[in-house]
Specification:
Blueprint: H1 8-31, H2 38-63, H3 65-95, H4 100-131, H5 134-152, H6 164-172, E1 185-188, E2 191-194, H7 197-220, H8 226-238, H9 240-247, H10 257-273, H11 282-302, H12 308-320, E3 325-327, E4 333-335
Antiparallel strand pairs: 1-2, 3-4
Helix pairs in contact: 1-4, 2-3, 2-8, 2-9, 3-7, 3-8, 3-9, 3-10, 3-11, 4-7, 4-8, 5-10, 6-7, 7-10, 10-11
Length: 342
Amino acid sequence: MPQSIGTPALWGGFVAFVFALLAVDLAAYRRSPHEMSVREASAWTAGWIAVALIFGAGIAWHFGRRPAVEYATGYVIEYALSVDNLFVFILIFKTFGVPPVYQRRVLLWGIIGAMILRAAFILVGAALLSRFDWVLYLFGAFLIYTGGKILSGKDVETHPEQNPVLKLFGKVFPIVRHFGDGKFVVKHRGRWVATALLPVLLVVEVTDLVFAVDSIPAVFAVTRDPFIVFTSNVFAILGLRALYFVLKSIMDAFRFLKVGLGLVLVFVGAKMCAEKWVHVPAEISLLVVVALLGASVAASLLWPENRGNGDAGRNEEKAGGGDGTEENGDGKMNRRIPGNHQ
């Protein structure tokens, strides 16, 4: 394992702190389940960013400037790439007809699962990088390839309803067609069965893991310290749930964001591949990443997409009806979940 600022006590304290925050959040949701408003989501987003910045300041205070800059760069990269996840999460919830009030619960448990999976991913990646130098170039080449696909507009389309995990789950476990008042399992005819919400959670988890294949190597291009990689990842995904409710109504406004993300991946991939010959200071990496993302957001606001055709398409969809939902005995409208239904 490479040298790290993270002692066992620091790792344990950080994980305990994060789960304490999530426990408070979960308790608040259980006490008053509701769709998060834009105002409430904005406050949560600002709060998570503030906590991340305070943590970065603590790293600077105790460990110096370089680890702090590496953490900040990793956080910005991961946060920006996490925004791209939101496009897919919106599609997932739309495909399976998940009501907004339950989306918050799915995202909360999705974050918990993502932290566990990413921790394992990061520890394995750090061990490989410390033992095999060629993994460095493999990660870099993969990032350049992924960034190039995004820039060429050939990134793979996502079809959540065709997710193999979902299809396998539906064959193995019985599923009822309703969302069980936000529960993932309910008792039905004397036995425990999955609600339509549990397969959605699994799809969200698998989707996040797929995105982690891009984002985690991108942070490893900035630092080899697994503690910095993990903490920057965790703080980025902690703010993702609230950011989802802030941006879900205006996601289409950032039409050039994917271009910025593609350029960021190409840059960090090239940096990783050329590290043996060209050293790019962490401060320069942070400036380049912020500049690329800032330019893509500014371009999106200066040259917004013409929405005329999109409005016409939505009107035709409304006129045609048939949104793929059906009403169950409880009067709830739910999308068909492939697999073994009850």
